[in-house]
Design a protein that fits this description.
olfactory receptor activity, 3-stranded mixed sheet, Olfact_rcpt, G-protein coupled receptor, mainly alpha, sensory transduction, two-stranded antiparallel sheet
Length: about 325
């Protein structure tokens, strides 16, 4: 791999080889089919729910538009890494330059953090809808929604940019082989030959601060929402509000539990093989992409009804053509 040097002791690789599952080096081509199947399921499931939300006028509301955006982010996360990963499995062409590696790292982490920030916006939307239902249309406008999403994107950039920026200043001289299927931060840092204590401290601090702040905001929001829902006099409206909160909390639990458990296992199970760590990384990256459309498609009544209507329309047989009646003798041409 290419490298620049300034003396024999000052070498830094500028391109790397991504080796996703080093323990399966000889049979990595067998991984193409399961990962391709998983990728196609993620694409089709998320795209189907997004199409349903966009195509139906009755679903042109903030909550459903946020669901569609969340699922679009899921497609982006999978697309950022899975096509290149499958291509490397099938062709063994797995070279990546340092700028491309850093760009992929930024995109993956930005989308993960942006995913969590969308959940915060959804929590705020549900808080206003349940606690102030009469004022909801005046408060949650298109301008407010666009502004909140802009803040979410800016916050995601501010969280991820320092980590990637510090990684770009590190010298990588231990090896040019990244034992991962994507440019994951710690996998790249293992190749460094200088002091990376600042990188580790910043990365861990940002992750902990971000997670704790998110959990506090989500906890405060949904505790108020549940408290307000139990005060609704109508049993049907109360059930609908609690059901909405239920599947939102299920998505939140799926996303945060996968990321937190992966971080804990990565630091505790140091004796586990690299393949196990990579499998856990794939699990926490792809599980929300696979589960979210199932939760929102099956648990959201309005989306579920439109999906059922769509499938019924596809399965209905075409009406038989009426047989053309033969012309009577008087109608026959002369």
């Amino acid at each position: 791999m290419s490298a620049w040097s300034n003396g024999s002791s000052n070498v830094s690789y500028t391109s790397f080889l991504l080796v996703g599952f080093p323990g399966l080096q000889e049979s990595r081509a067998l991984l193409v089919l399961p990962f391709l199947s998983l990728y196609l399921v993620i694409l089709s499931a998320n795209a189907l729910v997004i199409h349903t939300v966009v195509a139906q006028r009755s679903l042109q509301q903030p909550m459903y538009l946020l669901i569609a955006l969340l699922l679009a982010v899921s497609i982006s996360v999978a697309t950022t890494m899975m096509p290149a990963m499958m291509f490397s499995f099938s062709t063994r062409f797995n070279s990546i330059s340092l700028p491309r590696c850093l760009l992929q790292m930024f995109c993956i982490y930005f989308l993960i953090v942006f995913d969590c920030n969308i959940l915060l916006v959804m929590a705020l939307d549900r808080y206003v809808a349940i606690c102030y239902p009469l004022r909801y249309p005046k408060i949650v406008t298109e301008q407010l929604l666009a502004g909140l999403l802009g803040v979410a994107a800016a916050r995601s950039t501010c969280i991820v940019a320092p980590v990637v920026g510090l990684a770009s200043k590190v010298r990588f001289c231990r090896s040019d082989i990244i034992h991962h299927f994507a440019c994951e931060h710690m996998a790249l840092m293992k190749l460094s030959c200088g002091d990376i204590s600042l990188n580790k401290t910043v990365g861990l601090t940002v992750r902990i601060f971000n997670r704790v702040l998110d959990m506090l905001l989500l906890g405060a929001s949904y505790s108020r929402i549940i408290h307000a829902a139990f005060r609704i006099s109508s049993g049907r409206a109360r059930s609908k509000a609690l059901n909405t909160c239920g599947f939102h909390l299920l998505v939140i639990f799926t996303i945060y539990s996968s990321t937190i458990s992966s971080s804990i296992v990565y630091r505790v199970a140091r004796t586990a093989s690299q393949d196990v760590h990579n499998l856990l990384s794939a699990f926490y990256l792809l599980l929300p992409c696979l589960v979210n459309p199932i939760i929102y498609g099956a648990r959201t009544k309005e989306i579920r009804q439109h999906l059922a209507t769509l499938f019924q329309r596809e399965q209905l047989p075409a009406p038989p053509e009426k047989p053309q009646s033969l012309p009577s003798q008087g109608e026959l041409p002369a």
